[in-house]
């Protein structure tokens, strides 16, 4: 799809709404039949959930976005100088770009430095991609920015890039501590997968939230305006709408707390009363006791040594760590290192660091 030759996107995989609803239903049934019960945080991001997440990123208590903005503003120029424009054109790839607000900081630096690059956001949602590309068009119309979005999952996008554009190095952004929503084992599996698709010498800029005062971390997920509460409850609203369920959204506590045993803030929905929930799409009923929790999200927090270990296990080499002034958040820059056997071996080691 072309929105002018500078601003385009290509659909690699069409979202299949029926299949997505079927998968949601399978996951919800499995989660509500488990003990303890759980629902996947990947389902937070329907239209309303994405808008609420946007509001979260603007909250005083939710320091993560502010810190990463600061990092990109402070270090944007040195990132450009170090990793771009050494005679090789670059794809600035972004995984799950959202509205691309933070990325605009880097785009402006790169345009100013006149380096040869194109911006390649990858997103599974065509409507989100269209909005992003149109927003960039209105903001960067008069610049030399080349934007070439890819609609598909990360694997589709990166595989397509690696097979089509040999002459370009890839510099991949995975911002916002999204990696923190994976279990440690799945984070390594995901990053290894990235290293395997990317080419030797490609780089990854990975945002990660650092360990700090547990109260500061907890408040970020128990904000005073209760936006995160609405974000968490929206999961039930989505299930009501898409799976014809009858969750009573007034009968739940939103609760988030820091777990030092796994270095993560855990979010839950806790039933205020004994209740039964009917899932109309499947005809199944689920019982909950008073004060029974449903786990909805882990947001992992890291020490630098954890991140160094994760890089090594994923087959990447640490180039540098970039911090905000308080050292609350880090943007790590890692290089794909083919010689590291971790990225190429199939299924070994995983149990050692799960
Ligand atoms: C997207 N992700 C990094 C956010 C986080 O901090 O775990 C999602 C979020 N959940 C509650 N607030 C924000």
Automatic annotation (TrEMBL):
The keyword Isomerase does not apply. It comes from the Eukaryota. It holds the Pfam family Methyltransf_33. Residues 26-335 form the Histidine-specific methyltransferase SAM-dependent domain. GO terms for biological process: methylation. PANTHER family: ERGOTHIONEINE BIOSYNTHESIS PROTEIN 1. Keywords: Methyltransferase, Transferase. It comes from Galdieria partita. InterPro entries: EgtD, EgtD_Methyltrsf_superfamily, MeTrfase_dom, MeTrfase_EgtD-like, SAM-dependent_MTases_sf. This is Histidine-specific methyltransferase SAM-dependent domain-containing protein. One of its GO terms (molecular function) is methyltransferase activity.
């Amino acid at each position: 799809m072309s929105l002018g030759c500078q601003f385009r996107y290509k659909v690699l995989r069409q979202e299949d709404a029926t299949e997505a609803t079927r998968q949601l239903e399978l996951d919800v049934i499995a989660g509500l039949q488990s003990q303890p019960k759980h629902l996947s945080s990947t389902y937070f991001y329907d239209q309303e959930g994405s808008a609420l997440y946007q509001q979260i990123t603007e909250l005083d208590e939710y320091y993560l976005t502010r810190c990463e903005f600061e990092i990109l503003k402070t270090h944007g120029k040195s990132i450009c100088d170090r990793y771009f424009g050494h005679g090789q054109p670059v794809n600035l790839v972004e995984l799950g770009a959202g509205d691309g607000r933070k990325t605009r900081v880097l785009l402006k630096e790169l345009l100013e430095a006149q380096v040869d690059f194109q911006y390649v956001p990858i997103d599974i949602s065509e409507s989100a991609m269209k909005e992003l590309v149109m927003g960039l068009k209105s903001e960067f119309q008069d610049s030399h920015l080349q934007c070439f979005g890819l609609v598909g999952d990360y694997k589709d996008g990166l595989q397509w890039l690696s097979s089509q554009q040999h002459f370009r190095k890839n510099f991949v952004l995975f911002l916002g501590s999204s990696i923190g929503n994976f279990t440690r084992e799945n984070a390594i599996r995901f990053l290894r997968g990235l290293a395997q698709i990317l080419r030797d010498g490609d780089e990854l800029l990975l945002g990660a939230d650092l360990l700090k005062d547990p109260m500061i971390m907890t408040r970020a997920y128990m904000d005073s305006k209760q936006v995160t509460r609405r974000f968490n409850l929206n999961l039930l609203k989505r299930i009501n709408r898409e799976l014809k369920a009858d969750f009573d959204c007034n009968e739940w506590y939103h609760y988030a707390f820091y777990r030092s045993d796994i270095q993560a803030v855990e979010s839950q929905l806790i039933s205020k009363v004994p209740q039964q929930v009917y899932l109309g799409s499947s005809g199944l009923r689920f019982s909950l006791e008073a004060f029974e929790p449903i786990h909805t999200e882990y947001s992992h927090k890291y020490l630098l040594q954890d991140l160094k270990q994760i890089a090594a296990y994923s087959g990447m080499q640490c180039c540098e760590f970039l911090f905000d002034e308080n050292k609350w958040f880090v943007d790590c820059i890692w290089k794909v290192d083919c010689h590291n056997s971790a990225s190429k071996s199939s299924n070994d080691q995983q149990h050692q660091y799960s």
